[in-house]
Design brief:
The structure is a homodimer. Chain A is built from 11 helices and 14 strands. Chain A has about 350 residues and is of the alpha+beta class.
Chain lengths: ~350, ~350
């Protein structure tokens, strides 16, 4: 792994998007979202996405400058047409709007159709958390999962992220897709030449469980039909509800992903400090139970990532091949290569 | 299985609760919720619960007549103190309130602390569905799951139910807890003398996976840490957010379960008919994919239960031993036994 100075990387990635026609303050949000994922150790949603996004801009699927249209604004609810602007910028502003709605109504929900890949949902959920709210970010995705009982990919492994403020503990943060393991994890194993997949991770072309890499076709949903069920409901809440793309329509080269940002204003339900104290107490209670054999510590949702984030405040680890790819991209945009 | 006339059963179960001091219209809601679960084939949440509820009334943990206090009512949000009234009645009225809020603000959320077991979440989610909304019902539960990495039960296998209106298709309905299989399913196998548990269902006292019934201690969360994560977030949204009971505090003999009812008014997001047509289309699309080997039909969330419900409109199947138990209870209340 390369140890990369965060502030230099931030400037570098911002510069790439600026070169591709993105406004500086918007490029900074994209860079922030991607680097934060790398800092949290979620490298699948880090700067590895830069090439994909720049290609989307080049191919005309992603607008470099944000433009969205408000389709509905009614009470605690908004619907936007994202007009294929960048998913990060849309997600950022939609969550800010949801927070504003939640300040007024207690909860707020903003749906954005015709968006783009938003990276890690954690980023948007944390925006609400930092305003003293519970944040939720949902997105539809291109089809990588078969409906339960099916042998054809037709639904996204749709992500949901929920962030909760705490007092002294790390704010719990769940950011998960609906499969046992990510598609990317199996793809990485494939690249490394690994032939065997652990049991319960994968299905073959007949929709049957497989442990053979050669037979890998689609990821197994968590809890079998349950993971399909949760993906289906995210399709509805983050897509069908306001006309956003689901399944093959959520692909980069079709309508793009569709987003749902939601904020819950804790103050509407309970005194904020009482709440964060109660969250701390619940965390302590759960972490204090007897540990399973060979387990060193019981971790809360997102705790591992929070520790990684804290450890990467100044320097973040990046895979050399990813840095190389981003460097090539920078060169192709007429920029200087980044040097460690 | 006994084939029981639904309208006679309805009168019988209503009568039991009336005898225990519940108002007739409230007893009817409890009966409706329980019998609907049996009609949907979810017998774990059907009239098997009657004995538990009557005992809760007898032991003073459940108030026979509903009384709740509005703690907050602000914009789209309410918080109620359920004062240990019946979970069904509180859930019913809280969802009705959430629907009212959603009519006004687009979404509505009502939290109820100091409640009681609410049976199947599907019942409340469907109340919203029948009003042309998406309904969500969450609840905390007594600890039956260990936090991931732990070997001590400290968190509920917390349920979430989501119901979505469709046009001609069955309205999709996800009603799930966070473990691979229900605690009750393994308990039933134990009663039947089954010694082996399928792999991936159970953990032993050391928090290690086990397939031996003799070593069974706690249920395995779906997707390992993911199922713990979703249970944790339901603890927050349905409990900590407004001071409701979680973990051991959610037990029947402590503060009781804590509920969150939420309604999403589709009309605030999109034309309702466009929406239900799009839901139908999405369902057809997913059901039409190539099927896995040996699979006869691809089922949507809740489809099996909807078919069971339709088939049980007039007669519902009840286990003879459950009917016997309810009969004994009726006798103990000075009622005539029910006769098939």
């Amino acid at each position: 792994m390369l140890k990369v100075d965060v502030s230099i990387l931030y400037e570098f990635i911002t510069g790439i998007f600026v070169k591709a026609g993105v406004k500086e303050e918007e490029a900074a949000i994209i860079a922030d979202s991607l680097i934060q994922a790398d800092q949290r150790g979620v490298h699948s949603h880090g700067i590895v996405c830069v090439t994909r996004y720049i290609n989307l801009i080049r191919n005309g699927y992603m607008k470099p400058v944000m433009a969205y249209e408000v389709k509905r604004d009614q009470g605690a609810v908004c619907v936007w047409d994202g007009k294929r602007s960048n998913g990060q910028i849309l997600g950022y502003h939609a969550m800010k709007k949801a927070i504003e709605k939640a300040k007024q109504y207690g909860i707020g929900a903003v749906g954005v159709k015709n968006a783009n890949h938003f990276g890690a949902g954690a980023y948007y959920a944390r925006l609400a958390e930092r305003e003293g709210m519970i944040g939720m970010a949902l997105s539809t995705g291109d089809p990588t999962m078969a409906p339960w009982g099916g042998a054809e990919k037709a639904i996204g492994n749709n992500p949901i992220a929920i962030a909760v403020p705490a007092k002294e503990e790390h704010g719990p943060l769940l950011d998960m897709a609906q499969s046992v393991v990510a598609n990317g994890r199996i793809a990485n194993m494939m690249k490394q030449g690994i032939q065997e997949i652990p049991e319960g991770w994968a299905l073959d072309k007949e929709g049957m469980p497989t442990t053979k890499m050669a037979d890998f076709y689609s990821v197994m949903p968590t809890g079998a039909y349950k993971g399909f069920g949760t993906s289906f409901m995210i399709d509805v809440l983050s897509g069908v509800l306001f006309g956003g793309g689901t399944g093959f329509r959520a692909r980069d080269d079709a309508d793009g992903a569709s987003l749902m940002m939601m904020a819950w204003n804790i103050e509407a339900f309970r005194d904020f400090h009482e709440f964060t104290e109660a969250v701390d107490e619940r965390i302590k209670e759960l972490k204090a139970v007897r540990r399973a054999k060979n387990v060193e510590a019981i971790l809360m949702p997102g705790e591992k990532e929070a520790l990684s984030y804290a450890a990467s405040a100044h320097y973040v680890e990046i895979l050399p091949e990813i840095m190389e790819e981003v460097n090539k991209l920078a060169e192709s945009l007429g920029m200087d290569k980044w040097n460690a």
